[in-house]
Backbone:
């Protein structure tokens, strides 16, 4: 009995039906009627594993550039919508994945919000993001942070489009009913610090200025330049074992704490060596990927998702996944961000490796991209 109904079992009769009606009239219910929905045996994300082809999305992003300005739209952004979260327009239960366009000469006006954001640059060289008085110059592959409640604006003084992926914790902030937004009085904020000062201060290879007092709960470094990240991945790929599930994977950290870059969003850069096929695992974090270089595929819950540069894909919580670099000669690099800092700080983080079949999933199908 106990095994057949691990949550318990109450047989309904007319007396109980009447009782349920009386409970409902008082805006109450019996826990045993909702227990299995409220406390599931394991995570039941509504988000599904999904992949967006950049070459299909890019023309739409550019079309948005012909139709609206950043002043009209506030942000000219195409939102990547997970089919399981259509009504909310979220990429996962806790993360957004958006593609933003800033054309030559344009400014995306300054504002701030309690949702935290990161930018991962896809195209363009020399546009900027300004955060709390400091401007940083952006190049492809750079990771730029605009943490919770920091003033930020973007501009493009170059002669080509700037396109990047925005990652935000909006779904989480909204689930917690904690969203605030404030426009800056004027298009651009006052720039009070030298351009890329934080890069100057914090990219010193394990050293930080001892006189800097930093008490904010996020990284003081605005821009994690791809050039340095790529060099680090390359160095590590020469001899370090990496992990069986992710290959050479490096976490972007707050130089003051060694911890995640922001309290709600963590990020990794990952290199899969030529021909590398990682083993499958799953975890209680959502991960959104952006392919930086190379070609390959990721098997998520048995389904193969093929990827190439700038494709974006999402692995929801507790989905088994393994990565494959399809090239026998070249490395593949992936950038990803996640909600791991939240899950870890709340004691909800779990990881599990696949043990059957030597840690490799049985492939049951292939994802057909739109
Ligand atoms: Fe913003
Ligand atoms: Fe993973």
Residues:
């Amino acid at each position: 009995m106990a095994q057949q109904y691990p949550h318990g079992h109450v047989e309904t009769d007319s007396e109980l039906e009447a009782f349920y009606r009386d409970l409902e009239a008082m805006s109450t219910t019996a826990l045993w009627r909702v227990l299995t929905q409220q406390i599931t045996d394991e995570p039941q994300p509504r988000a599904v594993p999904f992949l967006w082809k950049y070459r299909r999305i890019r023309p739409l992003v550019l079309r948005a550039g012909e139709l609206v300005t950043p002043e009209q739209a506030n942000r000219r952004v195409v939102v990547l919508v997970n089919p399981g979260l259509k009504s909310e327009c979220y990429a996962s239960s806790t993360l957004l994945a958006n593609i933003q366009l800033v054309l030559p000469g344009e400014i995306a006006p300054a504002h701030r919000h309690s949702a935290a954001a990161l930018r991962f640059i896809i195209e363009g060289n020399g546009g900027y993001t300004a955060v709390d008085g400091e401007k940083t110059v952006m190049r492809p592959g750079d990771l730029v942070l605009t943490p919770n409640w920091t003033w930020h604006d973007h501009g493009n003084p170059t002669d080509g489009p700037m396109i990047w992926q925005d990652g935000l914790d909006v779904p989480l902030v909204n689930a917690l009913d904690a969203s605030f937004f404030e426009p800056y009085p004027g298009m651009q904020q006052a720039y009070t610090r030298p351009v890329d000062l934080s890069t100057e201060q914090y990219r010193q290879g394990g050293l930080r200025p001892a006189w800097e007092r930093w008490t904010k709960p996020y990284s003081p470094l605005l821009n994690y330049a791809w050039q340095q990240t790529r060099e680090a991945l390359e160095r590590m790929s020469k001899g370090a074992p990496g992990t069986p599930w992710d290959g050479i994977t490096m976490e972007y950290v707050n130089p003051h704490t060694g911890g995640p870059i922001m309290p709600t969003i963590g990020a990794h850069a990952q290199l899969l060596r030529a021909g590398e096929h990682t083993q499958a695992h799953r975890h209680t974090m959502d991960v959104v990927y952006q392919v930086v270089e190379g070609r390959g595929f990721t098997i998520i819950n048995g389904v193969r998702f093929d990827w190439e540069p700038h494709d974006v894909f999402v692995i929801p919580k507790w989905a088994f996944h393994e990565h494959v670099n399809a090239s026998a000669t070249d490395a593949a690099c992936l950038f990803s961000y996640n909600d791991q800092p939240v899950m870890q700080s709340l004691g909800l983080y779990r990881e599990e490796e696949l043990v059957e079949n030597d840690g490799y999933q049985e492939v049951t199908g292939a994802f057909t991209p739109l």
About this structure: DSSP finds eight helices and 23 strands in the chain.
